[in-house]
Amino acid sequence: VQLQASGGGLVQPGGSLRLSCAASGINFRLNTVAWYRQAPGKQREMVATITSGHITNYPDSVKERFTISRDNIRRTLYLQINSLKPEDTAVYYCHVPPGYWGQGTQVTVSS
């Protein structure tokens, strides 16, 4: 299983980013998939999940600004992040439960 995340970068507060995660080696369309993030000195936390039936879930802290989506034909997971804040700075990982993780993509929000 390979999960290749991309799309991170340096963004000013208030900006937007779209992260992508290309999956291979799994039957992608059948799996719940998720995005997590880990900020320096903090535990990894879930920021979005999407089921095979496209049901989404977010913690309250990001619900109004993050949107997870998936393209089962392209086997790709997306995370649209709007109104970025400095506290969104973290490495963002895609995850296929129970134990598959991408390599992460760095998001830095700074002026």
Provide structural commentary:
The structure is a single chain. By secondary structure, the chain is mainly beta. The protein is built from no helices and 11 strands. The strands form 2 sheets. Strands 2, 4, 5, 6, 9, 10 and 11 form a 7-stranded mixed β-sheet that branches. A 4-stranded antiparallel β-sheet has the order 1-3-8-7, with no helix packed on it. The relative contact order is 0.33. The model has no long low-confidence stretch (mean pLDDT 96).
Global Rg: 13 Å
Low-confidence stretches: none
Per DSSP E runs of 2 or more residues, the count of β-strands stands at 11
Class based on secondary structure composition and strand pairing: mainly beta
* Average pLDDT over all residues: 96
Oligomer: single chain
In one word, what is the shape? globular
Fraction of helical residues: under 10%
The DSSP helix count reads 0
The biggest sheet, with number of strands, parallel, antiparallel or mixed sense and barrel status, is: 7 strands, mixed
From the structure above, extract its key features.
4-stranded antiparallel sheet, mainly beta
Question: Summary?
Answer:
With 111 residues, the chain is mainly beta. It contains no helices and eleven strands.
Describe the secondary-structure layout:
Elements (H helix, E strand, L loop, with lengths): L1 E5 L2 E3 L5 E8 L8 E6 L6 E6 L5 E2 L8 E6 L4 E6 L8 E7 L3 E2 L3 E5 L2
Parallel strand pairs: 2-11
Antiparallel strand pairs: 1-3, 3-8, 4-5, 4-9, 5-6, 7-8, 9-10, 9-11
